[in-house]
Amino acid sequence: MKRIIAPLALALTVAPLALVAMPATAQQQQGAADLARVSAHLRAITTLVADFAQTDRSGQTLTGKLTLKQPGKVRFQYQKGVPLLIVGDGRALTMIDYEVRQVQRWPIGNSPLGALLDPSKDISRYGKVIPTGDPNTISIQARDPKRPEYGTITMVFQRDAGSPAGLRLYGWVALDSQNNRTSVRLTGHRYGAPVADSAFRWTDPRQRGRPGGG
């Protein structure tokens, strides 16, 4: 179970990217425009509910539901039978493992997905555009060269006229320091639906020892 799940937790904890200044080029100008579009997309989201599929390097796939509510709330609810839950409350991300009754927390600010959870942040400070060869796809990579143990995460957006600011988050790919690759794909995006704050509550297994990810 841990070998499947750990890379997603890693994907949420990569530190901000340190960018190196380069001469202005047409490619960089396009990259700046793409970063601005991604920022506009993230700022336009009020709520998002989507299905996710997480695949590890061996090809094993877990599914679940992502629920996002701005500002700063997110929930990764895994499929039935997977005793893991990840919840963001606007300040920190919490990973709850009901199988071993452990709870881990880390600041949202240490995560490149902080852009998703805090749209007021300047994504250009910790992300760079990776050319995809597809004008309809924008890829943003985050990596801290000073902390290689955090690995690399690449978020992928697709142009979609029906989504906020004309973009849709397709998913992301995480590569840890041992070159273990995990991909997460989102489908069935639903924007703007009412989401109650209770969706971001969780049961502490250290107090009740309750099994499952409820």
UniProtKB/TrEMBL annotation:
Residues 1-26 form the signal peptide. Keywords: Lipoprotein, Signal. PANTHER family: OUTER-MEMBRANE LIPOPROTEIN CARRIER PROTEIN. This is Outer membrane lipoprotein-sorting protein. Gene3D superfamilies: Lipoprotein localisation LolA/LolB/LppX. The keyword Zinc-finger does not apply. Pfam families: LolA.
